[in-house]
Amino acid sequence: MKNLELGNMYQMNKKEHNIIVRFAAWISKKNLPFFVISIGMIVMLLWAGSYKMTIPGADGIVPLVTNSPLISWHFKLLGTYVGSDFIGLTEVIAAILIIIGFFKPQIGIIGGAIGIIMFFTTSTMLITTPDSLVDVNGVKYMSFLGLFLYKDIIGLGASLFLITQFGKKAMLKEIKAR
Predict the structure, then answer these.
(1) Helices and strands, counts by H and E, the chain
(2) What is the pLDDT of residue 5?
């Protein structure tokens, strides 16, 4: 069987599929996951990035950055506020590259790759940041801080997804240009 996209399968014979399958195919055909994830990522990166360029935002990430073996050198080298500005600027740049990716998909791939690096780094902070786990009756749970960090695993997956989608768009653009 050919590797068909779900949206294309929807066009083949609508009456053969139940309503749930048709609904899934409609979502795929409209490319809603790409739209929702890309817009959500853009808003999150712009908002979080600009917040890190404020004093409360910089102060808020100090315990995360200083306990991370991957990025603790960053604040030692640049200082808290310049270091936080640099992190925030990186997030804003990633968002802008994703926006440009709507028109130039290869640029969107670069924005997604920056997201992978950022979210991989922050995902490891779940392990290195004190108080990310709390003990309740002998069972370890993620604290609010742990849950805050855990969302970056979703950001990592979203970045990977965006790269695949921008990659498909870039390949189609190259094929059409031939």
Answers:
(1) 8, 2
(2) 61
